[in-house]
Structures are given as C-alpha cells and as structure tokens.
Design a protein that fits this description.
Strand content: 35-45%
Number of domains: 2
Number of strands: 13
Keywords: Signal
InterPro entries: CBD2 (IPR001919), CBM2/CBM3_carb-bd_dom_sf (IPR008965), CBM2_carb-bd_dom_sf (IPR012291)
CATH architecture of the largest domain: Sandwich
Protein name: Cellulose binding domain-containing protein
Radius of gyration: 36 Å
CATH topology of the largest domain: Immunoglobulin-like
Oligomer: single chain
Number of helices: 1
GO biological process, one term: carbohydrate metabolic process
GO molecular function: hydrolase activity, hydrolyzing O-glycosyl compounds; polysaccharide binding
C-alpha cells in the first residue's frame, strides 16, 4: 500500500511540476512589454474676438468668438481675466465658472469639435461696477491666443506585448506488473515541459 501511495505522489508531483512550469512561462510572457517613444508635432494657435454687444448701467452683453488656427480640437477650454471686477452672470454656447476675476468657459457636448480655421461664439450677460474694460489676453486649452500658430512637440508611447506558447506533454508508459494506469510497482510518470 505504501508503495502505491508513493507512486501516486510521484505522479502528482510530476504533473504539478509540469503545470507550475507552464503557468510560470505563461505569466512571464504576459508581463513582457516593450515600450518605444514616438514624437508627435501639433500646431497650436487661436484668435479671440471679444465684443461688447450691449451695455447699460451695471450690466452688459458680450460675444467671445474663438477661432482655431492650429490642428483640429475635439474639446476646448477658454480662459480670460477681467481687470475691473466684472462678473459673468449667464452664458450660452459653453459652460462657465468664475473664480475671482478669472473666467473659464468649456465647450458643451454639441460644440466641442473645432476644426482648423473653424470658429465658435459663446455669448454672455455680465455685470460691472465703475468701468467695463475688455479683457486683453485669452488662453485656449492653456495656450495664449496670439493670432498665430506655434508648434508644440509632444511625446507618445506605444506598447508591444510578446506572447509565448507553452506546450505540456505527459507520457505514461506501461510497466510490468501494472496495467499502465499507475497501479504497478514502478512510477509511470515521465512528464516534461517543452517551450517553443
């Protein structure tokens, strides 16, 4: 009985070793990643035309026309700073927030794409006290709108995953005194792992 138990342990140990080796090779193959860098060049540029359309005691209306002079955009954020404490009260053609004198306008779902040479015009009603000078500097997606384009180099990376195929072969041979099923007096497991 103890001889038979030893045979089964060796048989199971051989299969376990083959399984463990196959799992290890598969896990290592899944984690091998080669990364390479690639440069991309994007032209960035914009022009903003700020126009007060109406003004009354303490309030005003204005349009802000943004023209994209650079590469096409899939979304945009415009930022400017008022110099005399003006406030945006209501805006259309974008979503706005104001912190102190800095106004930030983000595209809506329907006007986020801005092709090269294309324009969009958010408008707003605001309030003022004392004076209402027009803002003099604007930023589109963090880049100053100067009316011309500049190049910006960005870096992107690509990933490649290597895959290794593992084949596990277990050979069982007949032995004298047994039926080839591991019931005989000698171990029948001759397992091996082959990597390709």
């Amino acid at each position: 009985m103890s001889l038979r138990t030893g045979t089964r342990k060796r048989k199971l140990n051989g299969r376990f070793a083959a399984f463990t080796a196959a799992a290890s090779v598969t896990a290592m193959a899944a984690t091998m990643v080669a990364a390479g860098g690639q440069s991309a060049y994007a032209a960035v540029g914009c022009r903003v035309d700020y126009a007060v359309t109406n003004q009354w005691g303490g309030g005003f209306g204005a349009n802000v026309t943004i023209t994209n002079l650079g590469d096409a955009l899939s979304s945009w954020t415009l930022e400017w700073t008022f110099t005399a404490g003006q406030r945006v009260d209501q805006l259309w053609g974008g979503e706005f927030s104001q912190s102190g004198s800095t106004v930030t306008v983000r595209n809506t779902s329907w006007n986020g794409s801005l092709a090269t040479g294309a324009s969009t015009t958010p408008g707003f009603n605001g309030s003022w006290s004392g004076s209402n000078p027009a803002p003099t500097s604007f930023k589109l997606n963090g880049v100053a709108c100067t009316g011309s384009t500049t190049g910006t180099s960005t870096s992107t990376s690509t990933s490649t995953t290597s895959r290794t195929t593992t084949t596990t072969t277990t050979t069982t041979s007949s032995n004298p005194g047994g039926g080839g099923d591991g019931s005989g007096p000698w171990p029948t497991d001759a397992g091996s792992v082959h990597q390709t």
